[in-house]
Design a protein that fits this description.
The protein contains 9 helices and no strands. By secondary structure, the chain is an all-alpha fold. The chain has helices at residues 2-26, 36-43, 47-53, 57-79, 85-95, 97-106, 109-127, 135-158, 165-188. The longest helix has 25 residues, at 2-26. The chain has 2 domains: 1-55, Homeodomain-like (Arc Repressor Mutant, subunit A), CATH 1.10.10; 58-188, Orthogonal Bundle (Tetracycline Repressor, domain 2).
Amino acid sequence: MAATNHAQEIKQDSQNYLATALLQLLETKDLNDLTVTAVVKRAGVSRMAFYRHFTTLADVLTAHFTPIITQQFDDILAHVPQDQKLAALGTFFTQLGPTLKLSVTRGFESIFQQIFDQNMQRFYAVTMTWDGATATQQKYWTQFMSAGVYRIWREWLLGGQQESLTTIHDLIATFQTATMTALRQQARH
């Protein structure tokens, strides 16, 4: 068992070194301009260690950001009162602002957005009341709102945060309520 634990620690260390090295390199170069060779050299690990865990550099970013973002969503879903969940999510997204900006300027926003979208779909599955909505309506409403929430926070963060965070939360809540009301009205007809 000790050998297995040691192997897991080595695997985790290699993944952490690779993620740290990649994020450091992304401070000055775009993702498309980086190579596995540059990342493993910076990380101090072998190419074999890289390919043992990942196929692409994008995989390193996905493995790094998925648990961070997922854990925060899990904490909000489990520990924040229902009427404060959206605000808590906004605060978390604001904390990720520098990373979002880096992802936009360095060409890996799609990774960041995909992880956010997967978690927003879970968030809505848990927090929404689906009275009368069909499975198809639930699916597409969730995708629509997830994309919209991401774009609103993205625009707010990258646009210099001109409005208050409360204003942004109220706007998102209004969109959620209005679109859900429209969906429910459609379901009745």
